[in-house]
Amino acid sequence: MAEEENRHAGEHFEAGVEHSEEHNSDSPAPPMNPESNDPEKNREAEQEAAQELPSQAAAVHQRLRIDGQKELSRDSMALLWSAIAAGISMSFSMVARGLLHAHLPPTDLGFLIECLGYTVGFVVVILARQQLFTENTVTAVLPVMSHPTLSSCWHLGRLWGVVLFGNIVGAGLAAFTFKHMPMFDATTQAAFVEIGEHVMANTTGEMFSKGILAGWMIATLVWVIPSADQAKLWVIILITYVMALGNFTHIIVGSSEALYLALSGNASWEDVVFHFGLPTLAGNIIGGTFIFALISHAQIRGDLEAQRERKQGLIQRRHPIRAGLKKGGQAARNTTQKDAGEDRSG
Fold this sequence. Notes:
The protein is mainly alpha-helical. The chain has 2 domains: 62-298, Up-down Bundle (Glycerol uptake facilitator protein), CATH 1.20.1080; 300-335. Helices cover 78% and strands 0% of the residues. α4 packs across α10, α6 (119-127) runs antiparallel to α12 (232-245) and α10 crosses α13.
């Protein structure tokens, strides 16, 4: 009985629930009162729950993992529509940067100001909580790392597939609209083409390598946001601005630019898919999942073990009689087995 309770205590921490005699072990309690519509009360409840965790990193990990569990359980059609909206919203980065590029002089200062436009799409998508593929390379992966099963891996694959497809569809719809509807003057359209050509000028190896760093930076952004509070906007702008300065390749923003280039006849569809798409996608996944998420999960494994040991000690203090009975019962079984062995040898 004590061993079973100890096992449940360790499992409850990884499920984001504190072990208590008042809660059923098969019905995990939510981290905050779902009936409360008061943001201040919810924030206080989160802070109290975080104080019971062994470290701030574990608190962030738990919050992101709970968000990931919710995303993994969402309906596919809901994910798809949110992903399409995100793909369209991410095209705002190309629009804002193109407009700035068209109206700024081609100087170093002009480039520094132009890169601010790149941040617009990320601000809209993240604050609107739309489904962005590169966000899910961290958030949705943490539950799978905590409980790696075939079912969880299947749900992760479904989420990734639906969100990536929706993002690219949204980016394609935006690029088609910008190209074929009279929205922008010739100077701005030329700026869109120039931005796309600048992306496609990377070699395949550069697409992949820069994609790794872009995936890492977006994963860092996702990890930092829960602690940013009122500074979320500035965190998003800061990290994505650095991405623009470094010309790091992002699969969704780059899709808007590359698809616009292909629709303009300045790039082949083969180059869009094989020269840009696949290498950038692989780099983003590796940077966001296999590097950042793995390291972030690994850093709290020691905290998990320490918390589990403390919970086990707490259970033993709460149920000393059960623990004593189990010890006595085990000792009696050992004595009986020993006597039986002596009788056989005699």
